[in-house]
Each structure stands twice: as C-alpha cells, then as structure tokens.
C-alpha cells in the first residue's frame, strides 16, 4: 500500500472536525461515511472513509443474450489528519481515492479542500523566503539538519552562525531536503525551530512561533497555489 501526503490548509478547530466526522459516521443504508480510529487532543485524527456503490453491468449468456445485473463495489480510504499545524493530510491509499475523500471532507467541514500531490521542494521554498525574511532577524543559523529520503540526515554546526540559504544550497548535494532544524534570533532572544517538507513548522517557544509562523505559512500557500 502506498503512503502519500497531500497538502490541505485547515481552518477548522480540532473539536469541530472530530464532531463533523462523528456526525457523518458510516451508515449502511447510505453506503458511505467515516470511521474514526484514533483522535488525540493535540490534533491528530486517524480514520477511514468507506463507500459502497451499486453498479450495473452486463453479462453475455451462452445463447448470446445480454442481461443486466447489479453488484456492490466497496472502497475504503485510510487517512491521517494533523490539525495542529493545519497543513497536512496523509492518505494511505492510491491517488485515485483522493478526489472522493476530498469531496467527503469538504461536505463534513463545509470548507474547500484542495489537495496538492507530491511533497514540497523545501530548498526552493526556503529560497523563496529569502527576500521576505530579509526584514526580520532570521539571518544567523547555529545548526541545520538536512535530511534525505525518509530517515538519513546530516547535521552541520556552524561556529558563530551563518546564512540559512547558503547552508541549504551548499549542503543539499543534489538531494531533496526533507528537514531543516535551525535557530534564529528576534528582539526577544534565541529561538529553536524546525521546518519539514510535510509542511510542518515547529518552534520551541510561543513567541518565536508567533513571530515566524505567519510568514512561513503565507509563503507556503503561495508556493502551493
């Protein structure tokens, strides 16, 4: 089974999303609905969307006559939604079920759900941030971790800091950057942060997150548009 991430911006609080899924639980009579497998208060929901459809097909008798018959088609799409950063949805299935799952989620959440196939090229994304961040204090980086594939990574520690863009460009070695860990300074001091190519941004303190996250999210939405 293929695991694939699709990007979607959520504007719905965790509790409302959970209630929406619960109120649209699978119904045998309707032949569709959601199952919630796990729901963590910090904002992660895993579950399934199931459908049952009746299709009409034709069969050819030995005598050469065509006759219609009905049969059921069942489909189940497994998914994981992370509402803490409001930017990630993981579909555990082939891409063909994405449009159907997207339509169902849009009905539940009463908001537009747009999927973006393929992961973000973080190197290009961060490069596009350069001009936007020039007015802020993200100019000195103490350490950056660049990952390749699912788990391999290399950490570089710079004495006295350095320029984030230069680090990314010099350390990519032709591979796709999957994760960057760095520290940045604001008027409140030093902050530790992480960006990954599943569109997640995490900061060690509230002020640092409020300071940088809106900029990152704005640029990410522009990149995915």
Describe this structure as you would to a colleague.
Helix content is about 25%, strand content about 40%. It has about 220 residues and is α+β, with helices and mostly antiparallel strands. It has 2 domains: about 5-110; about 120-225, no CATH class. It is elongated. The two termini are about 30 Å apart.
Please give the structural blueprint:
Layout: E1 3-7, H1 14-23, E2 32-40, E3 44-60, E4 66-82, E5 88-92, H2 98-109, H3 122-133, E6 143-148, E7 152-157, H4 164-171, E8 179-186, E9 189-196, E10 200-203, H5 206-224
Helix pairs in contact: 3-5
Gist of the model:
By secondary structure, this protein is of the alpha+beta class. Helix content is 27%, strand content 38%.
